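Protocol step 4 of 5: obtain the predicted structure for the target chain.
Materials: sequence only (see below). No template structures provided, no constraints applied. The aim of this step is simply to have a reference model before the mutagenesis design in step 5. Sequence pasted as it appears in the construct record:
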Amino acid sequence: MKRSGRASRLIIKIIIWSFLVLFLLTAFLSDRTLKILSRDKIWAHKVNSIEKLAEVNKLYTGAELDVVYHAESNYFEVNHPPDPSINLSLADYFLSQKNNHDFHYWIDLKNLIKNNAEASSSLLDSIVRLYEIDKSQVIVESGNQQYLKPYRDKGFLTSYYLPAGLHGFSDDSLEQVLEKIRMNLDSHENYYISADYQDYPIINKQFPERKKLIWYTLKGPLNIFSSRILLYQILLDENVDVLLIPYQIKHGNKKDF
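Step 4 output (structure tokens):
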């Protein structure tokens, strides 16, 4: 009987410890834990519809959206080419948020060039004024960082979208790209640099004092545990202001945009 009682207690302990380990593992791998630890830093990625925005604004303090400027009609479209257009204007997007003045926006401007920089920045300036959006809550991002100056001059925060896939470059190629990045940073003043989370170890080493925006979409070549450890490291970096994470829309005509 004693032996049977000990065995029963051992089984109960194993079950309890198994549940505890499972709970801790689930919490470690959960994006919800990231939000609990650093709510203001965690924003939603690719929020390109009003339906998705309506869900996100209840859960996050900010969102990233993709925008294309159409010069011929002086119009901003919320879209990530080559995704199909849903004919959503940036003005209507902001209008849907008219009662939420605390929300933040990270605008990935897909087609910023020299010829549209002044006109597009003037249009964005007029839109945010119309909907009473504080410019300190709007980040405009582009890989063509030299054309972001009109946005900075109008009071917007700007970010230099760094070349993608730095972690996959050979040593020689990486040094060439980094040297170009350094030259761009010296030549053009932007508040942020932005990059994929897999490139974070490189940019943190090379530009430790720079303010950063980081996005996390896919696990890529890192295994799930290494990815998660890296995300926690990113959140602990005081020079990282935003970490984007995926959000799957729960309602609406499409599962995601």
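Step 4 remarks: The mean pLDDT is 89. Residues 1-30 form one domain.
Proceed to step 5.
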